[in-house]
C-alpha cells in the first residue's frame, strides 16, 4: 500500500487533482468547463516545456538552472531576426539553434570538462541573460509580426498550433524515455553512474545529449512565450527554472536521478497551473498564488519523504536480517545457550 | 569433478606488468584458465589481486603483457570490450540500479530490448534454479540476489569467463551453498571461473586449481589437491620485507596491563552477533578477521553509530545502555574510523580544526583559535606530522600524515579506550612504523586499545591478545601463540577452528 503511493506519484497527483477539481467545481459553478481546460493548457505550455527539459537533465543526476535564460536568449534571437526581416521559419530555426548551442555549451562543461552542473549552469544563467541584454541593447522587443502571434491563435476546440506541437512533444518524450534503448540510458546514468559505465553505457554522451535536449526545449518555450505574449521583455523566462524544478519534484522526479516519468511531470504542470485558474474562480486574490502553490508542494513532499523513510528502514532491516537467518553452526548455538544459562 | 561440456583454454594472461607511478603492483603475471575450470585466486592485501582483475575486465590498462579471451586479444581497456570478448567480472559489491526493475538491470547495455531478452533471461533463471522476480524493483533485492543479478548479466552476455570477486563475503552459509550449486552448473556448461576468496574452506569445496599472488608475483600455482592449507597460507602470508623498526611487544611489560576498562557481553547488531570481549588498561587487543567479518559494524555499534539488538556494554563500571558518539567521547571511548576520507577527516578544513573537532562541543561559545593551534602544534611535534602549518587543509597531506592527524584528533579527547579501525590502511612504511610506535606508547600510558586490522602481520606485531571475528560471529581467541598463521587459520577457515 505504501509502496503504491511511493511509486505512483502520478496516481496520487491525479487523485488529489480530481478531488480538488470536484471541490472547486461544487463551490464555483461554471469552473468545470471546456474553456477552463483550454485556458489551463495554453497557460501551462511554457512551464511544460521547461519542466520537460529540466526533467531529462535531472534524470541523469544533473541539474540545469539556466533554462530561464536560454528561453530569454532564444526568444530574443527569434524576435531580432524577425524584426531584421527574416522569414518566420528561418527565425524559428535560428531560435532553436540558439537553444541547442546554449545546451551544448552546458553539456560540454558538465559531461566533458567535469564541472558540477549546478555551478556550470548557475554561471550560464547569468551569462546567457547577459548575452540577451547585449543583443537587445536592454530594450524590449515589440512589433512582432502577426504570423508569429497566429501560432498561438485558436485553431478550434481551444487548441493552437503551439499547443499541438507541445503535446506532440510530450508524447514523443514519453515514447523516447520509456520505449527506446537510448532513453533507458538516461535513467541508468542517473541511477548508478558507475554501474552504467561498467555495462558499456556511453555515460558522457548521455549527459551531453540531456543538456542539448534541455536547451532545445527552452528555445521552444521561448518561441511559445513570444507567440503568446506578442512581445519579448528583458526578463522573459526569469525564474521559470526554479518553478520547473519544483514541478519535477512534485511530479515524482527524484533530484538524485534515475526516477521520474513524463506523465508525472505532465500532471504536476497541469496541477500547478490549475491552482492559478482555480483561485480566480474562488475569488481568492492572486497574491495568494505563490503561498498556496508552495504549501501544496511542501505537504506532498513531506508525506513522500516519510513514506520513503519507512521503505528505506524496511529494506535496511531486511538486509541485516540476512545474518539472523540460515543454518546456525551448532556449536555457536550451544555457546549462546551456556551464556543464557550463566545469567 | 563434473564432465566438461567444452574443453580448451578460455582465458590466457601472459606476462602482465602494472605499476602505479613508481610502485610496481604486478611483476610479470601469467595465468591460464580452461573451460569448466574453477580457479582460485588468493592473495593478501596489496598483493595485486584487484589490479589483476581490473586489467582482465578492461577497467584499467596494463603497462605491458597480453590478454586473450576465447582466443581473441583484449586490445582496449573498456569493460564493454572485455564483455564482448566473453569475460564478465562479478564485483564484490554488485552494481545495481536501484530504481530499475530486475530485468532492466540485467539487460542494460545490451542491444536487444529487455522485452525481447526476457525469455532468454527466464531460461537462465530456470537453469540456475533461482527464484527471482524479474519485475521487482532492484532496490529491494537482498545481497545474495544482487549477486545473482550480476551473474545473470554475465550469462546473458554469453560470458565464457566469469570472475567472482569474493562472492561469499556477504552471504550466509545457506546462501553460499546455493551459490556453489550454481557455480557447479556453470562449470558443467563449460564456463571458466576465476574465484577470488579469502576463505580456504570454500576454496577447497569449489575450486580445482589455485594460484597465490604475493607482491605482484604468482608464488604458487597448480592443482589444489597437491597443496596443504599450511602451504597455501604460508605462501600467501610470508612477510617479504622485515619491518624496519622490528620491535615487538616485548618493549612493554605485561605487568603494565591494569584493570578492565571495557567489557562487552553478547553484543549483537547489524551484521554481527553475540560478540563478547574485555579489554584492560594498557592492553592492545587485536580484533582480526577478513573483510566483511563484521568488525567495523561491531565497532560502530560500540561507538553508538548503529543500533544494537542485544547485549550489554560496561565501561569503567558503568553500563552504557544508550550510547551516542557524544556520550562515548565524553566518557573516553573513542573510535578512529576505517575510512579516513569519508568518516574521519574534514578534508577542506584546516588541520587544527580537525584536531579539535572531537572537542568542539566543549569549547567556549567564542572560539580561541590560538589555543587550538597550540594544541595542534603539540601533537605535530610529538607525532612528527609533516605539514606547512596548522592552517593547512587536510586534503593536502599524504595518507600517512592524514592518519596521524586523525589519531591526534582521537587523542585530543583523552581516550581511556581507543578503537582503531585499520589505522595503517594506505599508509607508507615509514609512517606505519611511526603509528606502531605511537600505539605502543599509548598502551604504555595506560590506554586500552582495540586494534581492528585485516593485516595479520600488524596484529602479530602489536597485539597482546587477539580476538578473531568470522562471518559476523566470534571465531576464536589467541592469547599466547599469536602468529600470522594462527590468526589466518581462525579467520579463513572459521568452522574448522571452532570445532578444533
TrEMBL record, chain A:
Segments passing through the bilayer: 41-59, 71-104, 110-135, 155-177, 208-232, 244-272, 284-303
Membrane-protein topology: Multi-pass membrane protein
Pfam families assigned to the protein according to its UniProt record, in alphabetical order: BPD_transp_2
Compartments where found: Cell membrane
Keywords: Cell inner membrane, Cell membrane, Membrane, Transmembrane, Transmembrane helix, Transport
InterPro entries: ABC_transp_permease (IPR001851)
Stretches assigned to coiled coil: none
Superkingdom in the source lineage: Bacteria
Subunit: The complex is composed of two ATP-binding proteins (LsrA), two transmembrane proteins (LsrC and LsrD) and a solute-binding protein (LsrB).
Role: Part of the ABC transporter complex LsrABCD involved in autoinducer 2 (AI-2) import. Probably responsible for the translocation of the substrate across the membrane.
Protein name: Autoinducer 2 import system permease protein LsrC
Taxonomic placement: Bacteria, Pseudomonadati, Pseudomonadota, Alphaproteobacteria, Hyphomicrobiales
Automatic annotation (TrEMBL), chain B:
GO MF term list: ATP binding
The keyword Isomerase is annotated on this UniProt entry: no
Residues spanning the signal sequence: none
Coiled-coil ranges per UniProt: none
Gene3D superfamilies found in the cross-reference section: P-loop containing nucleotide triphosphate hydrolases (3.40.50.300)
Annotated PROSITE patterns: ABC_TRANSPORTER_1 (PS00211), ABC_TRANSPORTER_2 (PS50893)
Catalytic activity, reaction form: ATP + H2O + (2R,4S)-2-methyl-2,3,3,4-tetrahydroxytetrahydrofuran-[AI-2-binding protein]Side 1 = ADP + phosphate + (2R,4S)-2-methyl-2,3,3,4-tetrahydroxytetrahydrofuranSide 2 + [AI-2-binding protein]Side 1
The entry's keywords: ATP-binding, Nucleotide-binding
Stretches assigned to the ABC transporter domain: 11-240, 257-496
Membrane-traversing stretches: none
Record has ATP-binding as a keyword: yes
Membrane topology, from the record: Peripheral membrane protein
Pfam families: ABC_tran
Quaternary structure (record): The complex is composed of two ATP-binding proteins (LsrA), two transmembrane proteins (LsrC and LsrD) and a solute-binding protein (LsrB).
Alphabetized NCBIfam families for the sequence: PRK15439.1
Role according to the record: Part of the ABC transporter complex LsrABCD involved in autoinducer 2 (AI-2) import. Responsible for energy coupling to the transport system.
This protein's name: Autoinducer 2 import ATP-binding protein LsrA
Source organism of the structure: Shinella curvata
Gene: lsrA
Amino acid at each position: 500500500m505504501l509502496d503504491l503511493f511511493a511509486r505512483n506519484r502520478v496516481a496520487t497527483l491525479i487523485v488529489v487533482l480530481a478531488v480538488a477539481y470536484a471541490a472547486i467545481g461544487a463551490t464555483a459553478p461554471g469552473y468545470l468547463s471546456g474553456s477552463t481546460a483550454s485556458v489551463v493548457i495554453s497557460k501551462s505550455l511554457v512551464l511544460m516545456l521547461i519542466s520537460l527539459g529540466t526533467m531529462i537533465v535531472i534524470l541523469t543526476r544533473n541539474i540545469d538552472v539556466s533554462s530561464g535564460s536560454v528561453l530569454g536568449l532564444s526568444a530574443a534571437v527569434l524576435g531580432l531576426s524577425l524584426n531584421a526581416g527574416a522569414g518566420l521559419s528561418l527565425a524559428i530555426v535560428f531560435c532553436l539553434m540558439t537553444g541547442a548551442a546554449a545546451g551544448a555549451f552546458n553539456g560540454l562543461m558538465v559531461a566533458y570538462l567535469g564541472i558540477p552542473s549546478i555551478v556550470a549552469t548557475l554561471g550560464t544563467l547569468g551569462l546567457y541573460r547577459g548575452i540577451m541584454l547585449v543583443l537587445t541593447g536592454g530594450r524590449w522587443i515589440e512589433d512582432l509580426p502577426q504570423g508569429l502571434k497566429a501560432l498561438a491563435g485558436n485553431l478550434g476546440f481551444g487548441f493552437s498550433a503551439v499547443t499541438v506541437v507541445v503535446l506532440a512533444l510530450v508524447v514523443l518524450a514519453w515514447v523516447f524515455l520509456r520505449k527506446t534503448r537510448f532513453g533507458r540510458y538516461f535513467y541508468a546514468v542517473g541511477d548508478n553512474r558507475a554501474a552504467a559505465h561498467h555495462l558499456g553505457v556511453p555515460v558522457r554522451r548521455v549527459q551531453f545529449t540531456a543538456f542539448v535536449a534541455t536547451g532545445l526545449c527552452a528555445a521552444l518555450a521561448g518561441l511559445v512565450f513570444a507567440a503568446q505574449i506578442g512581445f519579448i521583455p528583458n526578463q522573459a523566462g526569469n525564474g521559470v527554472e526554479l518553478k520547473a524544478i519544483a514541478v519535477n519534484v512534485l511530479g515524482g522526479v527524484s533530484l538524485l536521478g534515475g526516477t521520474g516519468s513524463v506523465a508525472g511531470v505532465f500532471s504536476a504542470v497541469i496541477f500547478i497551473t490549475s491552482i492559478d485558474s482555480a483561485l480566480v474562480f474562488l475569488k481568492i486574490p492572486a497574491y495568494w498564488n505563490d503561498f498556496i502553490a508552495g504549501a501544496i508542494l511542501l505537504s506532498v513532499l513531506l508525506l513522500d519523504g516519510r513514506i520513503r523513510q519507512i521503505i528505506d528502514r524496511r529494506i535496511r532491516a531486511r538486509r541485516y536480517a540476512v545474518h539472523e537467518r540460515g543454518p546456525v553452526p551448532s556449536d555457536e548455538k550451544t555457546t549462546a545457550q551456556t551464556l543464557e544459562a550463566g545469567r | 569433478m563434473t564432465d566438461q561440456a567444452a574443453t580448451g583454454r578460455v582465458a590466457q594472461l601472459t606476462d602482465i606488468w602494472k605499476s602505479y607511478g613508481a610502485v610496481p603492483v604486478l611483476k610479470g603475471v601469467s595465468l591460464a584458465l580452461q573451460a569448466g575450470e574453477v580457479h582460485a585466486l588468493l592473495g593478501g592485501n596489496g598483493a595485486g589481486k584487484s589490479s589483476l582483475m581490473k586489467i582482465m575486465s578492461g577497467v584499467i590498462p596494463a603497462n605491458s603483457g597480453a590478454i586473450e579471451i576465447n582466443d581473441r586479444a583484449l586490445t582496449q581497456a573498456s569493460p564493454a570490450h572485455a564483455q564482448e570478448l566473453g569475460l564478465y567480472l562479478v564485483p564484490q559489491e554488485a552494481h545495481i540500479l536501484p530504481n530499475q526493475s530486475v530485468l532492466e538491470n540485467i539487460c542494460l547495455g545490451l542491444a536487444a530490448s529487455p522485452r525481447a531478452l526476457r525469455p532468454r533471461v527466464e531460461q537462465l533463471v530456470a537453469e540456475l534454479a533461482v527464484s527471482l522476480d524479474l519485475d521487482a524493483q532492484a532496490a529491494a533485492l537482498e545481497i545474495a540476489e544482487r549477486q545473482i543479478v550480476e551473474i545473470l548479466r554475465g550469462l546473458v552476455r554469453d560470458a565464457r569467463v566469469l570472475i567472482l570477486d569474493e562472492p561469499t563475503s556477504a552471504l550466509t552459509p545457506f546462501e553460499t551453498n546455493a551459490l556453489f550449486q550454481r557455480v557447479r552448473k556453470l562449470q558443467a556448461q563449460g564456463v571458466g571461473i576465476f574465484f577470488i576468496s579469502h576463505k580456504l574452506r570454500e576454496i577447497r569445496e569449489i575450486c580445482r586449481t589455485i594460484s597465490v599472488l604475493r607482491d605482484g608475483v604468482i608464488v604458487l600455482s597448480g592443482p589444489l589437491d597437491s597443496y596443504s592449507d599450511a602451504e597455501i597460507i604460508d605462501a600467501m602470508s610470508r612477510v617479504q620485507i622485515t619491518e624496519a623498526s622490528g620491535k615487538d611487544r616485548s618493549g612493554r611489560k605485561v605487568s603494565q596491563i591494569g584493570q578492565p576498562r571495557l567489557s562487552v557481553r553478547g553484543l549483537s547488531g547489524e551484521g554481527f552477533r553475540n560478540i563478547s570481549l574485555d579489554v584492560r588498561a594498557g592492553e592492545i587487543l587485536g580484533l582480526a578477521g577478513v573483510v566483511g567479518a563484521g568488525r567495523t559494524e561491531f565497532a560502530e555499534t560500540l561507538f553508538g553509530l548503529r543500533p544494537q539488538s542485544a547485549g550489554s556494554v560496561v565501561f569503567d563500571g558503568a553500563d552504557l545502555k544508550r550510547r551516542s558518539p557524544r556520550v562515548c567521547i565524553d566518557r573516553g571511548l573513542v573510535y578512529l574510523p576505517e575510512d579516513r576520507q569519508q568518516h574521519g577527516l574534514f578534508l577542506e578544513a584546516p588541520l587544527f580544526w580537525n584536531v579539535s573537532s572531537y572537542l568542539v562541543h566543549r569549547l567556549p561559545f567564542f572560539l580561541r583559535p590560538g589555543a587550538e593551534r597550540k594544541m595542534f602544534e603539540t601533537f605535530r611535534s610529538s607525532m612528527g606530522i609533516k605539514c606547512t602549518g596548522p592552517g593547512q587543509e587536510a586534503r593536502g597531506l599524504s595518507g600517512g600524515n592524514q592518519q596521524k592527524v586523525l589519531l591526534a584528533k582521537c587523542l585530543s579527547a583523552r581516550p581511556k579506550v581507543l578503537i582503531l579501525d585499520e589505522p595503517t590502511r594506505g599508509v607508507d612504511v615509514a609512517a606505519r612504523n611511526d603509528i606502531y610506535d605511537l600505539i605502543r606508547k599509548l598502551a604504555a600510558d595506560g590506554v586500552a586499545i582495540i586494534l581492528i586490522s585485516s593485516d595479520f602481520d600488524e596484529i602479530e606485531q602489536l597485539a597482546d591478545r587477539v580476538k578473531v571475528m568470522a562471518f559476523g560471529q566470534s571465531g576464536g581467541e589467541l592469547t599466547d601463540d599469536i602468529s600470522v598463521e594462527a590468526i589466518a587459520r581462525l579467520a579463513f577457515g572459521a568452522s574448522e577452528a571452532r570445532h578444533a
